[in-house]
UniProtKB/TrEMBL annotation:
Protein's organism: Bacteriovorax antarcticus
Keyword Transcription attributed: yes
This protein's record includes keyword DNA-binding: yes
Keyword annotations of the record: DNA-binding, Transcription, Transcription regulation
Ranges for domain Cyclic nucleotide-binding: 19-139
PROSITE patterns: CNMP_BINDING_3, HTH_CRP_2
Annotated ranges, domain HTH crp-type: 153-226
Name of the protein this chain belongs to: Crp/Fnr family transcriptional regulator
InterPro entries cross-referenced by the UniProt entry: cNMP-bd_dom, cNMP-bd_dom_sf, Env_Response_Regulators, HTH_CRP, RmlC-like_jellyroll, WH-like_DNA-bd_sf, WH_DNA-bd_sf
A Pfam family per the record: cNMP_binding
Entry-linked SMART domains: cNMP, HTH_CRP
Length: 236
């Protein structure tokens, strides 16, 4: 981890996606003066499962994976967060230890705001509290959807659903397809849908042969989103 000079939140490219999007200029400047900005290299951890939270983490750039280690010592990816997201908010307000480990998946810039200041800011600006509640609600909804998928869908459907989720959060439009702008190993993808690495590889091959996805080097592309929706058994 490397501490860097904090830049103003006003110019942060992730500001409009974050919890401070409704603050006026004066309050944004105040937040800038009360934060610490750190840069993490790929593989470095922000916090570790079981440690106590002392503040809130706001992601300015990059991607971070949240992993949970079970009693058997096996690690699984719970979710992936990106620029504009926050971390540590649930543990911060429940005063519980972190339930997951946060690890940078690439060079990442993160701002840390201590607990005392963030609580005073919430009391002063209800919009921040509402944005955090909105974030917690969306997190809960996503967790419920994932739990339902693990119990009710087969591996093929879960993989299709994962690819659609990655397309929604990290997809970049390129002509008639979507590039997944996130590098995940096959092992990481397998843990995200609760299956063995060999099983995931078999279904990835099936998806490629069906013309639903493409791969160039380590980069994945979603080619047929409509068919992927059918394979995921998602109906709108």
């Amino acid at each position: 981890m490397k501490k860097v000079s904090p830049s103003s939140c006003e110019g942060c490219p992730a500001r409009q996606e974050g919890i401070f999007c409704n603050l006026d200029f004066a309050d944004i400047i105040d937040v800038s003066h009360h934060k610490i900005t750190n840069k993490y290299k790929k593989g470095q951890t922000l916090f570790v499962q079981g440690t106590h939270p002392f503040g809130l983490y706001c992601i300015s750039a990059g991607n971070i994976k949240l992993t949970k280690t079970g009693v058997d010592g096996k690690e699984s990816i719970v979710r992936i967060v990106h620029a504009g997201d926050i971390l540590g908010h649930r543990s911060l307000f429940t005063d519980e230890d972190f339930g997951k480990t946060a690890t940078a998946m690439e060079d990442t810039e993160v701002c840390f705001i201590d607990k005392k200041y963030i609580l005073s800011l919430i009391q002063k600006n209800p919009s921040v509290a509402l944005n955090i509640i909105n974030k917690l609600s969306r997190d809960m909804g996503n967790a419920e959807t994932k739990l339902s998928s693990l119990h009710q869908k087969n591996v093929r459907e879960r993989l299709a659903e994962l690819l659609l989720s990655l397309k929604a959060t990290h997809g970049v439009k390129e002509d008639n397809r979507w590039r997944i702008d996130l590098k995940l190993t096959r092992e990481e993808m397998a843990t995200m849908i609760g299956t063995a690495n060999e099983t995931l590889i078999r279904f990835m091959t099936e998806f490629k042969e069906a013309g639903i996805i493409e791969q160039e080097g380590k980069v994945l592309y979603v080619k047929d989103e409509e068919e992927l929706l059918n394979w995921a058994n998602i109906h709108y």
